[in-house]
Design a protein that fits this description.
- Pfam families: Leuk-A4-hydro_C, Peptidase_M1, Peptidase_M1_N.
- Helix content is about 35%, strand content about 20%.
- The chain has 19 helices and 22 strands.
- The strands form 5 sheets. The protein has an 8-stranded mixed β-sheet with strand order 5-4-8-2-1-11-14-13, with no helix packed on it. Strands 16-17-18-20-19 form a 5-stranded mixed β-sheet, with helices on one face.
Length: about 650
C-alpha cells in the first residue's frame, strides 16, 4: 500500500506552463476585473477602461506584464491616481500572437499583497475578438451589431489581460451605448441590480440617448469566456422551467423559439448523467451568419451559429454540446491550449451521453462518432500524421494557438475517454466524473492531474481488480496524449446503419449516371446517416470514382444543391468540387458568402482552391468583408494569402 501511494504521488504538484501568454502569471494573478466600455458601433470603436485587483503569488514583483493585441493603450495608473510607466514590445515579432504590455510598478510588492490599477485604452476595427457589423449585414437592417469571440487566445484584443485559461477571475462591467445603435446588450454575466461607479458619463445629444447596463460574474472564469453582444436583439424564454432563454434579432425569435422548445429537456438529460447545473440560467444567442464557429460556451451567454437552426432540429447537437461545456470547460478548464481536450473531449463525451438519454438512438451516437473520426482524420492529414498538432498535446510555442485548432481534441479526446470508460466500467466512470467535478470545481488543470485523480479515485473507492485496471489505464496513456496520428487503440463504432449508408453510396456509383432502385431510402435516413453518405461521396471523389454524370443524377434525385441544412450542403459542395464539377460555382459562391462558420467554409475553400485557385481567391475577395477576423485569417492560410502584421 505504501508503494502504491508513493506511485500515486510521484508526479509534480505544479501544472504545465502556458506558452501562449506573455503575462507574468506565475508571479501575479488577477482576482477581479472591472470593464467600462463606451460603444460607438457605427464608427466601430470602443472607449474603454479596465480596472484590476492583482494578487502577488510569487516571492515579489516590481512589474506586471499583460497580453494585448492591437489595442490603443493610453495610460496606466494605480487606484490612488498615481501614473505608472508602461512599454509595449513584441516577444514573437514574426507571429500574430500580439504584443506584451509591460507596466512598471511604483515599488516592490510581496507575496500575498494586492495591487489595484487601471488602464485606459480603446478597441477599433482591427480587433480580432470583436466583430463590428453594419446594419446592412444584419437580418432586420435597422441597427449595427457587435459580438465578441475570444477563444483560444483572442481576449487580449478585448482588454489587456492575462490571456491564459490557467488564470480565473470574477468580473463586473458597465456598458454604455446609444439607443439608436443597440436595443439591448448582454454579456457572459448576470445583469446587476446594483449600478457601478461610472468614470465617464457622455452627454445625450439630439437624436439619441445614452443607455447604461451593468453586469456581474460572481464565478471565477478564464479570460476567453468574457463575451458581449449588442444590437437589435431581444431575450425570451425558450421553454418551461424558467432556466433557458434565447437572444436573437426580433424577426427570428418565433422560428428559433419553436425549434428550441426542448432546451430544458436537453439540460435535464445532461443533469441526468453528470449532476445539477450550477450556473443559474442558460441563454443561447443565435448570432449572425458570419459567426466563425458552431457555438461558443460563454457562461450565461452561449453563442451559436444560425446554421444550427435547420427547421427540423437536426442541428441541435451543437446546443447540447455547448450546454455540456457548463460542466467541462467552464467549471473545470484546461490549464493551457495544449490540454484543450480537457475541455472539448470531455464535453463531446458528455454531449453524446446526454443525447443518448434524450433521443435514445444508440446508432446515432455511433454514427456521430464515425463522422467525428472522419473529420479528425482529415485534420490529421492536413497537419501531417507525424505532426504534434495531430496529437492531444500540440505545441504552439511562438504561434497563435488557433493555428492548431481542429477536431482532434474533440474526437481523439472523446475516444480516449470512451477507451478509459471501457476499462473502468460505465457506472464507476460516471461516478468518477461526478467526483472529478466536485474536486476541481472552478479550477484549471492539465491531463496529468486528471490521470492522478482517476487513479486515486479508483483506489480510494476500492474498485474491483484495481491493479489490472491501473495497468491498462497507464499502458497507453502517453501514446493517447502525446503520440501524433491515429489513436493507439482503434474503437469499434460499427452499426448496420453505417453499412446502409455505404451501400447507398455504392448504389449510385454502380448506377453510373442512372437512378438506383432504392434512391428514396435517403428520405428515411437518420441525419447522421446522410452525413456519412456525403462523407463517403467525398472519399469516392478523392479516389476519382465520383463521375460528373453521377453527380447530376444525385442532385436531380436529392436536390442537395438546394439543401437548406448546411451540415449536408457543405459536404455536398466539398465532394463535387473534389470530383471536378465546375457547373455549380455560382451556388457555391453564394454559399460561401452567406455562411461564416469555419467548419463549413474551410473544407469548401480547400476543395475549391485545389480545383481553381484563382477563382477561390476571387470568391474570398468578394466576401472578405463578411467574414469574422478569425475565419478571415484561416481562409487566408488555406489560400496562401496570409500576411503577418504586428502594427
Amino acid at each position: 500500500m505504501i508503494v502504491l501511494m508513493i506511485s500515486l504521488m510521484q508526479y509534480a504538484l505544479t501544472y504545465e506552463l502556458d506558452v501562449n501568454t506573455f503575462s507574468n502569471y506565475l508571479d501575479v494573478q488577477n482576482r477581479h476585473l472591472h470593464l467600462e466600455w463606451l460603444l460607438n458601433m457605427d464608427k466601430k470603436y470602443i472607449n474603454a477602461t479596465s480596472t484590476y485587483k492583482f494578487q502577488v503569488i510569487g516571492r515579489s514583483i516590481n512589474k506586471i506584464t499583460l497580453d494585448i493585441y492591437k489595442l490603443n493603450i493610453y495610460s496606466t495608473y494605480l487606484q490612488n491616481g498615481l501614473s505608472l510607466q508602461h512599454t509595449i514590445d513584441y516577444p514573437y515579432a514574426d507571429s500574430d500572437q500580439g504584443q506584451r504590455l509591460n507596466i512598471q510598478l511604483d515599488k516592490t510588492y510581496y507575496k500575498g499583497q494586492y495591487i489595484e490599477l487601471s488602464i485606459k485604452y480603446s478597441i477599433d476595427s482591427r480587433s480580432r475578438s470583436i466583430s463590428f457589423m453594419t446594419k446592412e449585414q444584419t437580418s432586420t437592417k435597422t441597427m449595427p451589431y457587435l459580438f465578441s469571440q475570444c477563444e483560444d487566445a483572442n481576449c487580449r484584443a478585448l482588454a489587456p489581460l492575462q490571456d491564459t485559461p490557467s488564470v480565473k477571475q470574477t468580473y463586473t462591467a458597465t456598458v454604455i451605448f446609444k439607443d439608436t445603435e443597440a436595443a439591448d446588450v448582454f454579456m457572459s454575466a448576470d445583469e446587476s441590480k446594483e449600478e457601478f461607479q461610472v468614470l465617464y458619463r457622455p452627454q445625450d445629444q439630439a437624436g439619441f440617448t445614452w443607455k447604461y447596463k451593468y453586469f456581474i460574474q460572481k464565478v471565477p472564469i478564464p479570460s476567453y469566456l468574457i463575451a458581449i453582444v449588442a444590437g437589435n436583439i431581444k431575450k425570451v424564454p425558450t421553454s418551461t422551467g424558467g432556466r433557458t432563454f434565447l437572444v436573437s434579432e426580433p424577426d427570428k425569435i418565433q422560428a428559433y423559439t419553436d425549434e428550441l422548445r426542448e432546451m430544458e429537456k436537453f439540460m435535464q438529460a445532461i443533469e441526468q448523467y453528470i449532476g445539477p447545473y450550477t450556473w443559474g440560467t442558460y441563454t443561447l444567442v443565435i448570432q449572425p451568419p458570419s459567426f466563425p464557429i458552431g457555438g461558443m460556451e460563454n457562461p450565461l451567454l452561449t453563442f451559436a451559429n444560425p446554421t444550427i437552426m435547420t427547421g427540423t432540429g437536426s442541428g441541435l447537437d451543437v446546443t447540447i454540446h455547448e450546454m455540456a461545456h457548463s460542466w467541462f470547460g467552464n467549471t473545470i478548464t484546461c490549464v493551457n491550449w495544449a490540454n484543450m481536450w480537457i475541455n472539448e473531449g470531455f464535453t463531446v463525451f458528455l454531449e453524446r451521453k446526454a443525447s443518448l438519454f434524450h433521443y435514445n438512438i444508440s446508432d446515432d451516437i455511433k454514427l456521430n462518432a464515425i463522422i467525428g473520426n472522419t473529420s479528425m482524420y482529415q485534420d490529421m492529414l492536413g497537419f501531417g500524421l507525424d505532426s504534434n498538432f495531430s496529437s492531444l498535446h500540440p505545441d504552439t510555442t511562438g504561434l497563435n494557438p488557433d493555428d492548431s485548432f481542429s477536431k482532434i481534441p474533440y474526437e481523439k479526446g472523446y475516444q480516449f475517454l470512451t477507451y478509459l470508460e471501457s476499462i473502468v466500467g460505465e457506472v464507476d466512470f460516471q461516478q468518477m466524473l461526478r467526483a472529478y467535478l466536485v474536486q476541481y470545481k472552478y479550477q484549471s488543470i492539465d491531463q496529468q492531474e486528471f490521470q492522478n485523480f482517476l487513479l486515486r479515485y479508483l483506489y480510494e473507492q476500492g474498485v474491483d481488480d484495481y491493479s489490472t485496471k491501473r495497468y491498462k489505464i497507464l499502458e497507453n496513456w502517453n501514446k493517447w496524449v502525446y503520440s501524433p496520428g491515429l489513436p493507439p487503440v482503434i474503437l469499434d463504432f460499427s452499426t448496420v446503419k453505417l453499412t446502409e449508408a455505404y451501400d447507398y453510396t455504392q448504389s449510385y456509383i454502380n448506377a453510373d449516371g442512372k437512378q438506383p432502385t432504392k434512391w428514396e431510402d435517403y428520405i428515411n435516413f437518420l441525419h447522421s446517416q446522410k452525413q456519412v453518405f456525403l462523407e463517403d461521396l467525398f472519399k469516392q471523389a478523392q479516389n476519382n470514382l465520383l463521375k460528373l454524370n453521377v453527380i447530376e443524377q444525385i442532385d436531380k434525385d436529392l436536390k442537395l444543391t438546394e439543401e437548406n441544412d448546411f451540415e449536408l450542403k457543405f459536404r455536398w459542395f466539398r465532394a463535387i468540387l473534389t470530383a471536378g464539377d465546375k457547373t455549380r460555382l455560382k451556388q457555391i459562391s453564394d454559399f460561401l458568402g452567406s455562411v461564416g462558420r469555419g467548419k463549413m467554409v474551410y473544407p469548401v475553400y480547400r476543395a475549391l482552391n485545389l480545383l481553381d485557385h484563382d477563382f477561390a481567391v476571387q470568391i474570398f475577395k468578394t466576401h472578405e468583408a463578411f467574414y469574422h477576423p478569425i475565419a478571415k485569417n484561416n481562409i487566408k492560410n488555406i489560400l496562401g494569402l496570409k500576411e503577418i502584421s504586428i502594427q
